[in-house]
Amino acid sequence: MPLQDVVAALKANTPLPDKAVAITFDDGFANILENAHPVLTNMDFPYTIFINPDEIDVGPKQLTWEQVKRMLNDGVTFANHTLDHLHMLNDEQSLGESVWLDKVWQNVASAERKINDQIGVSLKYLAYPFGEYNLSLAAKLKEEGYVGFGQHSGAVGPHSDLQALPRFPAAGPYANLNSLKTKLNSLAMPVTHSSLQEPRLTDRKLSDPITLTIESDDMRTSQVTCFFKGDAIETRSKGNTVSFRINDTLPIGRSRINCTAPSIKAQGRYYWYSQPFFIADKAGRYPD
Fold this sequence. Notes:
By secondary structure, the chain is an alpha/beta fold. Helix content is 27%, strand content 23%. It contains seven helices and 15 strands. The chain has helices spanning 3-12, 30-42, 65-73, 92-95, 97-119, 135-144, 177-184, and strands at 23-26, 47-51, 77-80, 125-127, 147-149, 187-188, 191-194, 200-201, 210-214, 225-228, 231-233, 235-238, 241-244, 253-262, 270-279. Strands 6, 8, 10, 11, 14 and 15 form a six-stranded mixed sheet that branches. Strands 7-9-13-12 form a four-stranded antiparallel sheet, with no helix packed on it. The chain has a three-stranded parallel sheet with strand order 1-2-3.
């Protein structure tokens, strides 16, 4: 279904159709037009591309604005991915929060204006490059009326954060149709509270366990399994809470924990929740 319809339903707290899927692409590569566009339009599947307007018409692998406009006329939606695909959390600590946030927001606002100037569209949707964000940036999106999209995995539902909506990757190492089918059938784990709110960390070792509060009569907290780097980690449940701890040193850059649990009523379907972590190197920067 169109991404705008998904966002509208979440904002209105309206249930989504069962097994609803919204298709998105990040970056305005020309191979989307060459490979994906003919298939998706033939199947009448709407989709959204998050673009970097300063990269459009630059380089042989990028879409041109003429192509963007032609795809727009075919029903494709375009939204903001910053001007130039920067690491938005770079230099946050050295610049100080106020200066850093003003700098990255100028980038976002300028990108939104350029997209609007070129194609007359301003959805105020931002896909964070590399999926990287922190609470200050998410709060700025909310203040400015934007919806944010991450790269941590999971389905969306009534408890999803509109400034950090999860998306399942489906390219590169994740281009597996069998696992993708499971992901497309997943359900949003109804996590009402997490003891870890800030995904941007300064310490590579988590000193405390992470505890999730879950409100559902369609899953058992005792059946929640959490994974880090593809391996199951020790998970403990008590009442409607689940706790887990990572003993490993977290890597520089991006990592995440995925937690799943089988649905009681919908056989073969799983609830899914993802907690991302972002850690800068000693220079305060993030790797690609």
